[in-house]
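Recall from the previous chapter that SMILES is a line notation for molecules. Here it describes pyridoxal-5'-phosphate.
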Amino acid sequence: MPNFTSSIKRNIKQITEQINQACQHNNRQNQVTLLAVSKTKPASAVEQAYYAEQSDFGENYVQEAIEKITQLSHLPDICWHFIGPIQANKTKQIAQHFTWVHTVDRAKIAHRLNDHLSESNQQHNCQDTALNICLQVNISEEPSKSGIMATEVFSLAEVVDNCDKLTLRGLMAIPEKNAGVASYQKMRHLFKKLQAQYPTVDTLSIGMSNDIEVAIAHGSTMVRIGTAIFGKRK
Ligand SMILES: *Cc1c(COP(=O)(O)O)cnc(C)c1O
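With both inputs in hand, we obtain:
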């Protein structure tokens, strides 16, 4: 059994308080989900977080993730989110092992995920039958980052919405560090527009260890936190 004084547990409590305060500060009633980003961290760290009542975990690398998912398959209701760049030849494994994918950035990937699920009738964790999808937006228009341009959101949303094994849940972004609030404002605007068009859209996946407050101030419904929970990565 995990050590109940673990720093992971303390960190989760502290981040949860930070999230609650940011919600209050911005007069937001709605819950913000904490996604614990466990990339490069061992299964034992994920397990400690799980016993601190953390149920959602984000991973970036397919092979590494599957090892942890397999090791931790005995934990009920643990929910895995894929948040890394997607190679087309990894879509089958992603469809098989994850409940959420935050980084869909082209129609081909959506179609492949959908086709794999149609073939296999895979059971997912979290009791969902469809795979939950967010579109990654390159909101600060950085050449080095993946994601679609804001102008491409609605055409890709339509593709995903037309896939019967996928549920369009929303948008994801990693705003540039020094970009100021403009990127956050643009994301909020896009998210509201998408929500007005698709009733399944309820997720704005934005905010990491260093920008929780500004993200929540701009409507984030899911923050993806690695370092502040699990410590620095090597
Ligand atoms: C690594 C990562 C995070 C977590 O970043 P921290 O700064 O460690 O909180 C969040 N989102 C994505 C997409 C990541 O790759």
